[in-house]
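Many groups now describe folds with learned vocabularies. In that spirit, our science desk offers one protein's residues alongside their backbone shape tokens.
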Amino acid sequence: MGKTLEVTSVDPATGAFKTYASPVKTESGARCMVTGPDRNVYLGTMPNAHLLKLDTRTDQLVDLGRPAPTEAFIWDLVFGSDGKLYAATQPNAKLARFDPKGGRLEDLGQMDKLALFVRHLAASDDGFIYGGTGPSRMSVVAYHIATGEHRAILPPEAQIGGIAEVWRAADGRVYALAGDRYFSLSGFTARSIDAAHVGGRVWAGRLRDGRYASVKGHSLIVKDEKSGRTEVHPYAYEGAELPVFRVGFGPDARLYGSTELPARLLRLDEPRGVLEEIGELGSGEVYSFLAHGKRLLMAAYAALGPLMSYDVTRPFQHDEPGRNPAPVSWPGADDSWRTFAATIGPDGKAYFGGLAGYGKLGGPLVSWDVRTGAVQAFPVMRDQSVSALGVWKDKLVVGTTIYGGMGSTPTQKDARIILWDPASREAVYNLEPIPGAVSIENLAVAYNGLVYAIASRKMFVLDLNARRVTSVKDLPFPGGTVYGSMAVGSDGRIWGFAPNAQAGIFMIDPTTDEIRLMAHPPKPITAGFAIRGDHIYFASGGEVYRYTVPSAATPPTPRPRR
């Protein structure tokens, strides 16, 4: 993220690789890659939706341009029966086309007006391109190459929330999956079929001789299914620096972190000033860390599981038996949720609050009894997600946001503060603290029992005994605050982070209800938050910093830790 993508070509016999620099410096990634009939390799990029071609004859990576200038992502690529390249886009769910012979780029228009993206593509031999769309509803669009006509072809009852998949199977036919229903696609018709009749997928890593190649960690794995032989070659390509997405203390009092896209688990060796890589957790990132007993609890987007339990006393291990971290899930869990908040509840259970997954509203409050392994999810309020958590007496203080997952449309107008009773598993109080505020970004319960929270560039104070807001103040710095980045320090004051370059580290004094900017870090804060004693830790890009809470005689001194 924020860097420029590179392409590597790898020799599956030796693991030797060559790196190709992108000719477009703005593009940080590619979500799709396909080999064309011309033996060249094509890529669709993000965040400005370029098409790139790796010309295998000249050994050059070239920019073909933007086939749909309104778009940010190209999610998938496929060659049609006409020999042209088709691209699936976001955010306007378009289909675009490139002619390798003539070099012409075409924007074919929006395929689904209710969709955020066309996510998956497949081509048939009889002149159709099929696109799986979402996430507000699962839909499959059939595009007829000869006429340009396109239609949504799934039955209405199959168009539930989520993303429909389409693929061309080894038998040459095209299939779709919407929820738990399979379909065979032909022309403008989608026919419901049994899972037993679905053709197997053809994976992109299949080599011409039938072996399969993949990259796992820092190795190239080549498998021959016929002989059962597996070759492992070191994959020495290092790539660009990954940003640190989140930090938190583990039960061993050491600082842990997660990188973003992919999620690599890190641990800070503070005396040496080194971030150690422990292992890879998935393609996304960890949003929340909690220490519980001897375990580091994690809630993540697109990882091994929506929840993970890591025993810090045992080695990191991907394989069974003894997988560590162990993935944890529950019925109805969504791997695309984003957990903005986490806390240990008054009942000793771990609680996580999440933004709903793609196309959904109403992210859950999740209760995890680590001792028994039981996980339960509760909707705290219709069409609202949980964005902040705290503990007040024997209750949970829940802050909400009106927003859901990407592709959803809010139905509510105001964020709420909800007092949740873990014993009865229900809300006992509900308040609209600031009319028009759409998200509670942060909250903390001070030593005086008052709740201090941030919403819509304002700080407000809530007296839960009196059930009323006692004070509202504008933030004394531009921008908002970093989610999940506010806590009570050892000095009794509340500390937090603001990401704007003109902001930084702020403090709330519960004795006066004053909010004040305390320090400007050397670089803007991009992630947080961990506090221990007089030290607060945060990240800026790939660096981790420590800030020492100042006394009257000690000025603020952020110190970098790489």
Notes: The first strand starts at residue 6 and ends at 10. DSSP finds no helices and 48 strands in the chain.
